[in-house]
Amino acid sequence: MAIQLKQSLKLGQNLVMTPQLQQAIKLLQLNHMELAELITQELTENPVLEEVADENPQDNVETAATDESFDPEIQQTNDEQSQQTQQTTEEERVLTGKEEVNWDAYLEDFNDSASTAPSMKENNPDDTPTYENVLTKTSSLEEHLQWQLSMLNLMENESKLGQLIIANLNDDGYLDVELAGLATQAGIELEDAEEILKMLQVFDPIGIASRNLQECLLVQAHFLSPRQPLVEKIIRDHMVDLEKHNIPAIAKAENVPIELVVEAQKLIHEFEPKPGSIFTETDTQYITPDIYIQKVGNNFVIQMNDDGIPRLRVSNYYKSIVQKDASKEGATKAKEYVHEKLRAAMWLIRSIQNRQKTIYKVTEAILVRQREFFEKGAHFLKPMVLKDIAADVGMHESTISRVTTNKYMHTPVGTFELKYFFNSSINSADGGDALASSAVKEKIKHLITKEDPKKPLSDQQIVEMLQKENVDIARRTVAKYREMLGILPSSRRKRAF
User: Fold this and answer.
1) Per-position DSSP letters for 375-413, written without gaps between them
2) What pTM was estimated for this model as a whole?
3) Number of domain units in the chain
4) Are residues 193 and 254 in the same domain?
5) DSSP states of 71-82
6) Radius of gyration of the CA atoms of the chain, in A
7) Which of these, 1, 9, 55, 20, lies nearest to 311 by C-alpha position?
8) Domain span including residue 168
9) Is residue 295 part of a domain?
10) What is the H or E stretch that residue 415 is in?
11) How do 135-137 and 284-286 pair as beta strands?
12) In a domain, 370, yes or no
């Protein structure tokens, strides 16, 4: 009897967006205090992590989170030597630094070329921010979106539509009204209005201005890297089954293994169903600068603030457990547990290091473009948009937006959110260099501060005075900036005394 041998090939889908990579992205968005809280929590939950004591500086070299010489691969050198005859498992590839991870797709190529992020060791009391400088009012959702909208080069009717959309978002970030009605108000075709809406939906936070949950999740799914067709397919065609957790029905309909559907469901659960909810807090809050810029001679020095942030390393005790041969079942399970915790610890340390380097690199690019501001103050702020810094540091504009939001810089002229340095431009009257909108606002504020209370300046008078200072600006723009500064019109500023 002849024996027939058959060989079959099977195509499959693989979901590769790991929790570790998601954690690395989230770390970029944390400010100083949030990062300190997260590290403290990780120290509590992960026994492999240890805090480096300040009195033992030699211990800091290998694994300190903000030390540029830190390399996670060093942690597993001995483990590599003890496993020469073993087949490398997925977990061991991570521990030895051999896991194929598309790190550049998430952290935008700054590992190879990023500047170092020196630690903040000692602060001169004169350079410490005053009490007034550590108070801030968090941006509202509308302000945050209006700022991003102002960075786009849109036509007047397109900008008007964008403002109408933003004004009609509910607290969860969803568009509550029909887009067709807003398009009519803005004098724009519905087809073009859909394109403007799609543009707003990829603002930070991703998925904002969606019209329903399905659209919100689908927008976020499009930003997975690499793209996950199964995730998008489930959101587009199987929302009812997804809400009912009917995994077998989805797997059957898509003709894929149940395991892949489960993994896709886990990814979808990581999405934010209410992107506007993070902006509901409006109370006054204390802030701590993430960056200090100090002038030393004729140069400016950038220092990352690591004060209050625990410096981390991997416990030698747990490393020794991994290096030992496991001959018993219980020992094998213990080793697997330590492997898992060790991988999580090393990813956290690496993510913190890359976060610090990214913020440093963006700050350095801002300093180069805005040096005159740091020397002379807000009146000398130059026009600058996200695209400028993105090009300078080789990152995407959305990454720059995340890095600069809710992070503060203490400078010789005050404490500012990194987002403050991005401004649209106002043309000069003589055709020379354009002025930043923030600088023009400062000029308007200064003029009104110096006005006669009995005869306050009208918007037209401010226009004429600014034109004498070589600022080409329209009266309605002055009115808009005055309102943004919270300054009343001249009729309501007038005083009889």
Assistant:
1) HH-GGGPPPB-HHHHHHHHT--HHHHHHHHTT-EEEETT
2) 0.52
3) 3
4) yes
5) -GGGGGHHHHHT
6) 27
7) 55
8) 141-277
9) no
10) strand 414-417
11) antiparallel
12) no
